[in-house]
Design a protein that fits this description.
The protein has 217 residues and is of the alpha+beta class. It contains eight helices and 13 strands. The strands form four sheets. Strands 3-10-5-8 form a four-stranded antiparallel beta sheet. A hairpin with a 2-residue loop joins strand 12 and strand 13. It is globular, with a radius of gyration of 18 Å. The relative contact order is 0.15.
């Protein structure tokens, strides 16, 4: 199983390799172009999504139109499972950040997989538990951590192959600060040797320095 360690020492787990293989063999692939909506907040969930290729932004919209990014999911991860299991309207939307391929897992498909491989039910429970832990960490950071620590934590959590493909606006929406605050924080991080910036991408130069910012050192 692939695990990505976030800034708080918790793991954001992708699907186990054996379950990943079963899912990829179990159904047809839906393709989404960059910026195309995969599902919308308020929809009734008939399925959840396994990301075969690409990356997806999961986000919420408030009644006054503000957007809050919850997660960026990539290959091997599942999204939209909460509303599928509790049979209530979706509390978030999902949009493709790149050209993306998704396998939709409905009740019949999931039942067939688990009937053949019952232990996979426990793997799903582990994924759900990790998701709850991640959301709890995000809530803690919003409540207790200063802006620089929240931004540094998000960079560590979102890092993939040494970089973070995220805009200043997306960072601001995710951690609950203004774009100006994000720009100033990233400038400080760059001067301290933590990161360097490119167009729509941030290169992580020192995870250790970012961890110290998260820890308030």
């Amino acid at each position: 199983m692939e695990q990505r360690v976030n800034a708080y020492g918790h793991t954001n787990s992708a699907v186990h390799e054996n379950m990943q293989s079963l899912i990829e063999q179990s159904g047809s692939v839906r393709k989404y172009a960059k910026d195309e909506i995969i599902y919308l907040q308020g929809d009734t969930a008939q399925s959840f999504c396994y990301i075969k290729k690409g990356s997806v932004k999961v986000y919420m919209n408030s009644v006054d139109g503000n957007e809050k990014t919850l997660n960026t999911a990539r290959h091997g991860e599942i999204i939209g499972e909460g509303a599928f299991f509790d049979k209530k309207p979706r509390v978030s939307s999902a949009k493709a950040l790149t050209n993306t391929e998704v396998i939709m897992i409905d009740k019949k498909r999931l039942t067939d997989i688990i009937a053949q491989h019952p232990t996979l039910a426990f793997e799903l429970l582990e994924i759900l538990a990790n998701r709850i832990r991640l959301l709890s960490s995000q809530l803690d950071s919003m409540t207790f951590m200063q802006a620089d620590a929240r931004i540094a934590g998000l960079l560590l959590e979102s890092e993939h192959n040494g970089s973070v493909a995220i805009t200043h606006e997306e960072i601001a929406n995710t951690v609950g600060v203004s774009r100006v605050t994000v720009s100033k924080a990233l400038s400080r991080f760059a001067k301290a040797g933590c990161i360097s910036t490119e167009y729509r991408r941030i290169l992580i130069k020192s995870r250790e320095l970012l961890k110290k910012i998260v820890q308030g050192d």
